[in-house]
UniProtKB/TrEMBL annotation:
This is Putative glycosyltransferase EpsF. Keywords: Glycosyltransferase, Transferase. Its EC number is 2.4.-.-. One of its GO terms (molecular function) is glycosyltransferase activity.
Length: 365
């Protein structure tokens, strides 16, 4: 059974990690399942390297925004030659073109998958795009209930399948030895580490995060901000850090293969995103036993799988965020989080089996 996944990039973001966790396990269990991937990001990302090393094909296409006709032609060639049973597109309500083309090429199972919710700046074309996507897709997926409701509509919820952004829980469990080793390597022993993992993009709201950290620094002189990720706003963020005289208090790490290890050296995890479909890093951080603070009304409630996650309104000031964070007295990592994450349905060891069964049932209808 050949399956084509379509995603914007294949670096180290939440969607990419999701694809790797699910697809690698399904392929290891069943060699008759073949996954191919389409991306418009020409830079070879971390997940892409893993996929290529596993023998998967990765096709590069022209972004729709650059040349929509070339994009259509390239997708058509891939689908015509691929003879796919399933096309699984991870572009939410903008999945209508892949869904239409898959319909034209007789693909039996056509999945439109949303990973976003509560986007403030929405295209005027959202409504017709959503209509067309729902018209040509045979299945609608979402990463959370909020993402399903926001993207596909409240009247469609009974038809939407929630596919959990499941993780390999054991990788994220707290390890004191790892904390000591990496803290020593980075010179962070005795520091109060505020952490964030994510692309440096408008969505992730790093500008506000820097403001929050600046206020935390006033309350905790030994505070250090650890940013893991890369993106278009890196130079802008660095300039803000310079203006606030925080150069010696912020550490940048670009995409790393073992990001899960770095949760161990954090004392608190902060995610003031402008919009998220789930925010899988919240699940990862809670698995590590970290105190987490995230945007209220933006981060879906599905992300709160323990009392470790606190929601703070985005319209609160940076000072209010900082005081809320510092008001918590115990920053020690909570251990034994494996059963908590598993009970919430975020264990990849269980969830990949469900997706494999779904694929087979869908093509055998």
């Amino acid at each position: 059974m050949k399956i084509l996944h379509i995603a914007a990039g294949l670096d180290a973001g939440g969607v990419e990690k999701l694809l790797w966790e699910y697809c690698s396990r399904i392929q290891s269990d069943d060699s008759s399942v073949i996954f191919d991937f389409v991306t418009h990001e020409k830079t070879v990302g971390l997940i892409e390297k893993k996929l290529l090393a596993s023998g998967n094909k990765v096709f590069y296409v022209t972004p729709k925004s650059e040349n929509i006709f070339r994009y259509i032609r390239e997708i058509c060639i891939i689908m015509k030659n691929g003879q796919y049973y399933v096309v699984h597109c991870h572009q939410g309500y903008t999945s209508f073109l892949p869904m239409l083309l898959a319909f034209m090429f007789g693909v039996k199972c056509r999945i439109a998958h949303t990973h976003m919710a509560y986007i403030s700046k929405v295209s005027k074309l959202r409504r017709p795009f959503t209509f067309l996507t729902k018209l040509f897709a045979t299945e609608l997926f979402a990463c959370s209930n909020e993402a399903a409701k926001w993207t596909w509509g409240a009247n469609t919820l009974d038809k939407v399948i929630i596919m959990k952004n499941a993780i390999n829980i054991k990788l994220y469990l707290y390890n004191d030895d790892t904390r000591r080793q990496i803290s020593k390597k980075l010179g962070l022993e005795g520091k109060f580490v505020v952490g964030n993992i994510g692309r440096l993009l408008y969505q992730k709201n790093h500008k506000f995060l820097i403001e929050i950290f600046s206020e935390i620094k006033k309350l905790k002189k030994n505070a250090i901000l650890l940013l893991i990720g890369n993106g278009d706003l890196k130079s802008e963020i660095k300039e803000q850090i310079k203006v606030l005289n925080l150069d010696d208090s912020v550490i940048f790490l670009e995409s790393v293969n073992d990001a899960y290890n770095y949760y161990n050296i954090m004392d608190v995890f902060v995610l003031p995103s402008r919009y998220e479909g789930l925010g899988i890093v919240n699940i990862e951080a809670q698995a590590n036993g970290l105190l987490c603070f995230a945007s209220e009304g933006v981060i879906p409630k599905d992300a709160k799988v323990s009392e470790l996650l606190t929601f703070v309104p985005l319209d609160e000031t940076a000072e209010s965020w900082a005081r809320e964070i510092i008001s918590h007295n115990n920053f020690n990592h909570k251990e034994n989080m494996e059963s908590v994450i598993n009970d919430a349905g975020y264990s990849i060891d269980n969830e990949w089996i469900k997706l494999k069964k779904f694929y087979y049932n869908a093509v055998n209808k």
